């Protein structure tokens, strides 16, 4: 989609009050010199390039310091359409340190792959609660040690001083520590845009950053400072997400969502759709966590650093609504952003070919389109008579379509688009018929994790023993001892007497062939706690494991 600067609407004054939260103080005009415009910089609450182009981050996090051999990831992330990559570095307190030579190579990888590079020190994570965590002052010293490789890269690099640099204890201490770190870097001659993460392990759920952001911003003599909130389980309400981000925008203060993911846990179920939709509404950047290599692969965008193995989360981030494929625009420092005088549309893509068709997904490939300047992406549409519905997007000539309906015929076609927003003629169509939903082939394991007088914590592991993915499943079982589920993560429970059914959360919706999903729950009990003796999936009996 063609992005244009737009006037941001003002949030109703009573919204924050209704939610019981206070936002940042309104920005003041005329109380600072014009910000330095050496490269990426802040002006009127927006991140701009040196030429004044409004730049909106759309990218992912990459755990470089733990996987330094995975340098191909930079090209793979770009190939999927990202315009920014946030790179995990170590300052030596817990990981690393990443050397000046290593960091210089990371910057060159970002530049070679035409992405803005957000460099962050991960050692600060959870300072005050995490043993061995670095302080923001120590992180600033690390950046000063890299000054020779960072100065001159202001067009390409944002310095994220420290990842999640304060835990939940005495979060008010974050404000002065952040001011001191910012000023230390400015006194050392850094003119880069600096990014600062909030306290509460980045989530700022106590609203410390939200209420003192103006104070922190005013302490930066350059004005080139952007705030970053990490949105995980506590951000399950669309209203909360909207109010938090609107508060910064309304105050004229720059903000990005520096990390977010999708899984629910016992603290809540993060609303990733609302995060992406609100960011698109306000033209705010976001960086999804994370490319690959997580201890819990539920957070991986791709398995084994292989872009051909996108997970559900990867498909959502790169190809879903308001995702990277739809909204990312390359920084103009690399020649992106489009020429306003370019009115020539790309040629039509070649006829798509379908493969790997299942009950709910299909892979489409097609001969690439050409353009006088360059093709920047493709939109995939379902054609029904004279009506078209977009069902996917991609930065390349390959896309995996998900969320399709079983035993359904689709007529699909592709459009190409360029940086100036010109759209090609439609390709020829291809007809794809999804397969029938297979009869459930499953095994279910059940165990009690912890137990107390009147309650317990349980775990259910569902394994797909078949050869095709299972999607939109419903699990059924019966408690015979009067147990009652009070909270469940990984799905939504419905209980009538002892009979329980569970439908999936978004991130457990599909069970890969020979794959598993895990549900956890808290339940009440009266005395005995017998385990269910039988389980069904979509009405068919499962083996017990």
Automatic annotation (TrEMBL):
Which residue intervals define the domain Fibronectin type-III in the entry?
A: 348-437
Superkingdom classification of source: Bacteria
Q: Which SUPFAM superfamilies match?
A: (Trans)glycosidases, Carbohydrate-binding domain, Fibronectin type III
Q: Which reaction does it catalyse?
A: Endohydrolysis of (1->4)-beta-D-glucosidic linkages in cellulose, lichenin and cereal beta-D-glucans
Q: In the UniProt record, does the keyword Nucleotide-binding occur?
A: no
Family note: Belongs to the glycosyl hydrolase 5 (cellulase A) family.
Q: What name has this protein been given in UniProt?
A: Endoglucanase
Q: Which organism is it from?
A: Streptomyces hoynatensis
